Amino acid sequence: MILYAWIHAINLRFVVYKNTEMAKTIQVHDKKFKKIISSEKIQKANNIIAKKLNKDYKNKKPIFISVLNGSFLFTSDLIKKVNIECEISFIKISSYSGTQSTGNMNTLIGLNETLKGRNVVVLDEMVDSGNTIEKVINELKKLNPKTIKIATLFFKPDAYKKKIKLDYVGIKVPNDFLVGYGLDYDGLGRNYQDIYVLDK
Q1: Angle 83-87-91 (CA atoms, 0-180°, nearest 5)?
Q2: Which of 11, 89, 134, 170 has its CA 20 to 30 A from that of 22?
Q3: Which residues have C-beta within 8 Å of that of residue 174, sequence separation ≥ 6?
């Protein structure tokens, strides 16, 4: 009986170890990805951004504009850590096809809230070339907000082509294709809590 329990315990440890190792690589559609950023590091970055927002927007009642689809997890986790009075709204813009940015943006979901005279914070999961965030900022400026700030969880400095200031940056990442934590490859991969890079 004792021998059986000992063997069973070893098998359990092997299964846990095997699952941990397997989590380091995933396959999405026809491509393999390897983990580069843990969920713990992601949440630490969210904590830092939220702390700064709580300080900068105390008594200012900001409205957070989340850029869907990629930012849904970022927005959900971040907003739980924001303890000031605020509003949240969403827009949807797409610029990716497969693993390449198309550079073409289409606003699919618009704002219903009035932004005139408001303090706006745009929440974007990842800023790479800057095409999407530029489009968002230009559209929001037409609505005459008091201020517009940008908060992004992931930033690709080597890919960034714009002069727009990013006010809150969580983690700088390489200019590679990423999936996980809201980022997808042709619709799949958003549900992973870690970030994975294309295994070339």
Answers
A1: 125
A2: 170
A3: 156, 158, 197
Whether residue 7 is predicted with pLDDT greater than 50 in this model: the reply is: no
Which pLDDT tens digit goes with each residue over 128-172?
A: 999 989 989 998 999 999 999 999 999 999 999 999 999 999 999
Q: In whole angstroms, what is the distance from residue 185 CA to residue 183 CA?
A: 7
165-185 in b/e form (b: 16+ CB < 10 A) is: ebbbbbbebeebbbbbbbbbb
| Confidence (pLDDT) at 112 | 84
The confidence band for 190, taking pLDDT boundaries of 50, 70 and 90, is very high
Residue 92 CB partners (closer than 8 Å, separation 6+): 67, 68, 69, 107, 108, 109
- 30, 56, 124, 128: the catalytic one is 128
**Domains of the chain: residue spans and CATH:** 40-175 (3.40.50.2020)
- Verify whether residue 128 is a known catalytic residue: yes
Is residue 64 within 8 A of residue 75, CB to CB? The reply is: yes
Q: Please compute the mean of the pLDDT values over residues 97-114 and round it to a whole number.
A: 62
